Amino acid sequence: MRTVTFQSVLNGVATRMGLEPAANFQLNQAAALTEYITDRLAQAWEIASWPEWTTSEQRQFRASWSNATTYALAAEVYDPGQNAYYRSIQAANLNHLVTDTAWWTPASDLDTYIEHEQSWESHKLGVVWAVYLDDPHTIDRPRLCSWWEGPEGIWVQTSMSKVWIEFSLRPPVFTTTAWDSTVTYALDDLVYYAPNCYKATGTSTGVTPGTNGSWQQQSFPYTLSRPVKLFAIADALREDQSLDKASAWDAQSGQALLEALDRARPAYRTADTFNVLGT
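User: That's the sequence. What structure does it adopt?
Assistant: Structure tokens below.
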């Protein structure tokens, strides 16, 4: 994915607002603009299946059985060897193979849903666009599968043990809270370390963002940098009750988003696009 720095986006918005990032840019102003930028990026990110951050992955409905896990009564697992799901029929179920009928029974009535966040998968599900029975990477016309979204996750109507899900990765988030070498950071904490923002991948103290795997850079997509900047300017003007100016910037930002959609995938140019992101 082509990217730009978060600092360049923030400074671009500030400059067009008549602020000088290197001189009179106050922290509360930066924080407000960062919130507009984050919200508008999420909206634009999720409005279409942008090729740069849309992927397809094969997913199973439960975690694979492990001999290191103690399973509770009614816990459900997937066994790759049997390509089937099993349910524990006893508590404190440790290191008993799924073929041991004293401890496991086939989960023939398994609820076939995929959680939005599966602990054994690298990617959390963002917007889901399709569910397939076949690998869309290798088959031109993979079979579609009926699905719906519920509190538990993505429910799938199938008798197969695995399906392929086409989904958007989750959008990055940003902050103006500067990284502090004396602070102990926990998983998913956000910091700003010029010129980018970073999310903690675990607990750390004194580890400079960008130097190892303790931090994940929150990359800003080049594709959406212009429309997001324009939308953020409109939001800031609207907050200041400059409604006429905000409307003018809304028109520019909507056009910029349509142009970005045209470049990415022309079929997504629809009359609803501006209505979704406009006000």
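The chain has five helices and 18 strands.
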